[in-house]
């Protein structure tokens, strides 16, 4: 297997403050990989560095192409969909316009309508609300809209930043089920950042643990889930 | 009563110009959250370009189309050269930039075409419209053009992918980048469209006020008033605001003794301040439905 995403010696900065200290990890094509870590460990920063939304040094390669000096929008156009923390919903636009925006960089405009229907099949609640202003959706619905919008890109890789944040546990279960399905059926590789370690490890095949801007542990999801330290620090039992 | 109808109609006709200017103001305000003080001068310059082309013998509609293209490209060039580098700068820097642009365009126009007033033709003529003494064909034409412009903009923003991308870039730039929209070019496109719309306003008003480098000064203030009344974020609001300001200005000038023509301009300013104090979002400002 070849690595689809290759991150080497990644250092990121917020002004003078260094948030990542030489982070290294890779993601295999077709895999669902999770980055675990406490608040402030650098998970969000890692995702933002991949999309070049913050100043960083080091090397990030996606399918053999260097991303370091590319703009956010051209990185997205390579097939990397980023669902940011806070979901990035276009709150003043309708649900359907949000989905169309997800596909705005695509050239094959004819297939977009079909893809919107596919999203409605994945997330029936979005169909019911398709003319509604997206800002009026509930948190869970907005998160589904954010995932659906990201999928409208027909991404090769999807970056998800804390998809469980602020959602009721039952809704989180549903959402993660759908993510698993998308990963398997639509062959979308997924890199998910989570504080809800238990859930993320159930879903993922590969996991990394970040502490203060460095990878401190890596392995298959099972290995990580059974590790004594991880259980104590992140799983709480 | 006839005086009243007359004044309302005349108000709607001049209001069409304010509406055009307000549309241009709103386009740039949406893109960069600032009022472009040089909008009027850009429109004036475009009108001179049209005049020059007609002097060279190009027929009206040919010159009109070429001027639209020139203004569109010019607007993009101004954004790329002057305002893109200022994208993250504070408000005052922008204001200084707008004033500099105002002074530069005004002087260059004066230098090139001097300050004597020039006749500018109307494509609609100036005979009575449908035999009515109240409104001329040129005034009717101005109203028609403004409404056509509004409809075209509505279709563009509502039904085209570029329009959707522009709206997204204006409302949530970071999310827009994350779906692959080049927000920086969307701003440039907004400038180009605003410059083109402004040039239409300039070419429509030049037959009325005569062409000279300072012709847009008053008009732009009314355009700002119209945009503020309409809410700064809504093209429809800008147009309705334009008509309201035109009618209001005429009625106050006619019926309130002592106002006359001399004090018409302060009315626009008073209107701006009143709206900002009483209803800061304007009549048609963006209403965002919030969950409670």
UniProtKB/TrEMBL annotation, chain A:
<keyword id="KW-0029">Amino-acid transport</keyword>
<dbReference type="GO" id="GO:0005524">
    <property type="term" value="F:ATP binding"/>
</dbReference>
<dbReference type="InterPro" id="IPR003439">
    <property type="entry name" value="ABC_transporter-like_ATP-bd"/>
</dbReference>
<dbReference type="InterPro" id="IPR003593">
    <property type="entry name" value="AAA+_ATPase"/>
</dbReference>
<dbReference type="GO" id="GO:0015807">
    <property type="term" value="P:L-amino acid transport"/>
</dbReference>
<dbReference type="InterPro" id="IPR052156">
    <property type="entry name" value="BCAA_Transport_ATP-bd_LivF"/>
</dbReference>
<protein>
    <submittedName>
        <fullName>ABC transporter ATP-binding protein</fullName>
    </submittedName>
</protein>
<dbReference type="Pfam" id="PF00005">
    <property type="entry name" value="ABC_tran"/>
</dbReference>
<keyword id="KW-0547">Nucleotide-binding</keyword>
<keyword id="KW-0067">ATP-binding</keyword>
<dbReference type="InterPro" id="IPR017871">
    <property type="entry name" value="ABC_transporter-like_CS"/>
</dbReference>
<comment type="similarity">
    <text>Belongs to the ABC transporter superfamily.</text>
</comment>
<comment type="function">
    <text>Involved in beta-(1--&gt;2)glucan export. Transmembrane domains (TMD) form a pore in the inner membrane and the ATP-binding domain (NBD) is responsible for energy generation.</text>
</comment>
<dbReference type="InterPro" id="IPR027417">
    <property type="entry name" value="P-loop_NTPase"/>
</dbReference>
<keyword id="KW-0813">Transport</keyword>
<dbReference type="GO" id="GO:0016887">
    <property type="term" value="F:ATP hydrolysis activity"/>
</dbReference>
<dbReference type="GO" id="GO:0015658">
    <property type="term" value="F:branched-chain amino acid transmembrane transporter activity"/>
</dbReference>
UniProtKB/TrEMBL annotation, chain B:
<dbReference type="GO" id="GO:0006865">
    <property type="term" value="P:amino acid transport"/>
</dbReference>
<keyword id="KW-1003">Cell membrane</keyword>
<comment type="similarity">
    <text>Belongs to the binding-protein-dependent transport system permease family. LivHM subfamily.</text>
</comment>
<dbReference type="GO" id="GO:0005886">
    <property type="term" value="C:plasma membrane"/>
</dbReference>
<dbReference type="InterPro" id="IPR001851">
    <property type="entry name" value="ABC_transp_permease"/>
</dbReference>
<dbReference type="GO" id="GO:0022857">
    <property type="term" value="F:transmembrane transporter activity"/>
</dbReference>
<keyword id="KW-0813">Transport</keyword>
<dbReference type="Pfam" id="PF02653">
    <property type="entry name" value="BPD_transp_2"/>
</dbReference>
<protein>
    <submittedName>
        <fullName>Branched-chain amino acid ABC transporter permease</fullName>
    </submittedName>
</protein>
<keyword id="KW-0472">Membrane</keyword>
<keyword id="KW-1133">Transmembrane helix</keyword>
<dbReference type="InterPro" id="IPR052157">
    <property type="entry name" value="BCAA_transport_permease"/>
</dbReference>
<keyword id="KW-0029">Amino-acid transport</keyword>
<keyword id="KW-0812">Transmembrane</keyword>
């Amino acid at each position: 297997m070849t690595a689809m995403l290759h991150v080497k010696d990644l250092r990121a900065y917020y002004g003078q403050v260094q948030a990542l200290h030489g982070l290294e990890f890779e993601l295999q094509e077709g895999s669902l990989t999770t980055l675990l870590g406490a608040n402030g460990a650098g998970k969000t920063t890692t995702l933002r560095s991949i999309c070049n939304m913050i100043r960083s040094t080091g090397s990030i390669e996606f399918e053999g192409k260097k991303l370091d000096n590319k703009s956010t929008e051209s990185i997205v156009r390579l097939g990397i969909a980023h669902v940011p923390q806070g979901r990035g919903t276009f709150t003043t636009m309708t649900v359907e316009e949000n989905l169309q925006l997800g596909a705005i960089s695509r050239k094959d405009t004819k297939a977009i309508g079909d893809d919107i229907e596919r999203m409605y099949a994945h997330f029936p609640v979005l169909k019911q609300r398709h003319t509604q202003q997206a800002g009026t959706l509930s948190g869970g619905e907005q998160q589904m809209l954010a995932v659906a919008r990201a999928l409208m890109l027909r991404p090769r890789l999807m970056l998800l930043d804390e998809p469980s944040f602020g959602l009721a546990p039952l809704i989180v279960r549903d959402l993660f089920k759908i993510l698993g399905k998308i990963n398997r059926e639509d062959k979308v590789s997924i890199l998910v950042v989570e504080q809800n370690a238990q859930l993320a490890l159930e879903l993922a095949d590969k996991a990394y643990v970040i502490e203060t801007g460095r990878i401190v542990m890596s392995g298959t999801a099972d290995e990580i889930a059974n590790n004594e330290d991880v259980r104590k620090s992140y799983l709480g039992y | 009563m006839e005086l009243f109808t007359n004044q309302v109609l005349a108000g709607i006709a001049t209001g069409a110009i304010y509406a055009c200017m307000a549309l241009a103001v709103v386009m740039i305000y949406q893109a960069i959250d600032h009022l472009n003080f040089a909008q009027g001068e850009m429109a004036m310059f475009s009108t001179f370009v049209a005049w020059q082309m007609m002097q060279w013998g190009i027929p009206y509609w040919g010159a009109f189309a070429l001027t639209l293209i020139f203004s569109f490209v010019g607007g993009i060039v101004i954004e790329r050269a002057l305002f893109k580098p200022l994208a993250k700068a504070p408000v005052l820097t922008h204001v200084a930039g707008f004033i500099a642009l105002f002074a530069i365009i005004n002087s260059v126009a004066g230098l090139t075409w001097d300050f004597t007033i020039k006749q500018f033709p109307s494509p609609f003529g100036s005979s009575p419209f449908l035999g009515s003494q109240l409104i001329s064909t040129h005034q009717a034409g101005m109203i028609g053009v403004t409404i056509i412009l509004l409809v075209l903009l509505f279709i563009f923003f509502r039904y085209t992918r570029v329009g959707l991308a522009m709206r997204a870039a204006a409302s949530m730039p970071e999310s827009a980048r994350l779906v692959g929209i080049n927000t920086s070019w969307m701003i440039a496109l907004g400038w180009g469209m605003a410059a083109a719309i402004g040039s239409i306003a300039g070419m429509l008003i030049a037959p009325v006020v005569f062409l000279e480098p300072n012709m847009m000064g008053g008009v732009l203030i009314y355009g700002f008033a119209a945009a503020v009344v309409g809410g700064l974020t809504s093209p429809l609001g800008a147009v309705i605001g334009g008509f309201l300001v035109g009618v209001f200005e005429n009625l106050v000038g006619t019926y309130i003794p002592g106002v006359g023509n001399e004090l018409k301009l302060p009315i626009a300013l008073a209107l701006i301040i009143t709206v900002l104090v009483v209803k800061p979002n304007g009549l048609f400002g963006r209403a965002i439905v919030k969950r409670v």
